[in-house]
Amino acid sequence: MKTINILLLVFLFAALNAETPKYLKFQAVAKDAEGALVTSQNISVRISILSGSATGSSVYTEIHSVTTSPGGIAEFEIGNGTASIGTFSNIDWSSGSFFCKVELDLKGGNDYTHISTSQFLSVPYALYADKAGNGFNADGIDSIILKAPDGKKFILKVDTSGNLIVSKINSPVIPVNSVTDADGNVYATVTIGTQLWMKENLKTTKYNDGSNIPLVTDNTAWSNLTSPAYCWYNNDVSTYKATYGALYNWYVVNTGKLCPTGWHVPTDAEWHTLVLYLDPNAINAAEIESLIAGGKLKETGTTHWSSPNTGADNSSGFTALPGGFRDYNSTFDYVGIYGDWWSSSEYDTYDAWYRGMINEHSNVGRFNYVKFVGFSVRCLRDN
Known about the structure:
Layout lengths: L10 E5 L8 E6 L12 E10 L6 E10 L5 E6 L3 E4 L12 E8 L7 E7 L5 H8 L3 E3 L2 E7 L5 E6 L5 E5 L9 E3 L5 E7 L2 E4 L20 H5 L6 E2 L5 H8 L2 E2 L1 H4 L9 E2 L3 H11 L8 E4 L2 H5 L27 E2 L5 E2 L4 E9 L4 E8 L5 E7 L9 E2 L2
Antiparallel strand pairs: 1-2, 2-5, 3-4, 3-7, 4-6, 7-8, 9-10, 10-11, 11-12, 13-14, 14-15, 16-17, 18-25, 19-24, 20-21, 22-23, 23-24
């Protein structure tokens, strides 16, 4: 998530299906400058796909007029708008890097304000395959995922020297049934592919060396933090601890001592390994990795997730829960609506990577946000 003067937008991109798609799905969660959702409102969005750089020439531009949902969601299909430049189906995704420029008019007109320009860090798999073969490009390396008759999955990559690299992505993990933190809280675990995860949100108040993590309840103090701290949603430990766990800022994560010994907060790459196992078409791009993996990760029903909890079957056993978050202005937001989990990977001086899920969709989003917000944490066992 990224705060701007007019609107808060969370951008979600992914291929519509495993076949060669005609379009890319775009979803945005909209909030105004005060943090309120922009609901049931007509807005105009101009999308431009730029070639080569964030200031490159547009190979395709289109306009969408959409109405946000009661939950503040705006969604449409890139490639299916009113085009003013180029033809979406003629974009050669294999020819180089591409950027998505988003402009907005909150009044639904054509007085556009630039919101964001983000790189497609991985070319959407099916679109690339349609132009360049049955593969995808990740960080400059051509790759393809193959599934053996016994169900094992492999990634084939051709490096810059022309060498073929084969990586097995579902080696067996020796499972354990539970793990205990420094407070004595016991967590159930689940094996997913090559990884062993906690299947509950972390709730420890101590580092794994036994020292205390600072508890910060004051709003002003929280907003000014540049050091480790945790809190409970709404500062209400009795209501939220047992189910949703604690909310930690990224400075706690960065100590390397938050999870029990032998466990750690997953890196951005390790989160992607999880999503890729559940959805072989997942793309390691800023915004969204998968349209379906969130459903496989979310707890079923509406006991904790607000209705409709779209796509949730928890087939992975991960049991993702919507613990909400403590935002940049110290407000507690969206328990039951959002589940957000830190990675240990820094984005830049101010932001770090995290993963997000929402009740209205089955997506997994890959975003970066300021380090002093409070998100949930899941721990991953060391290799």
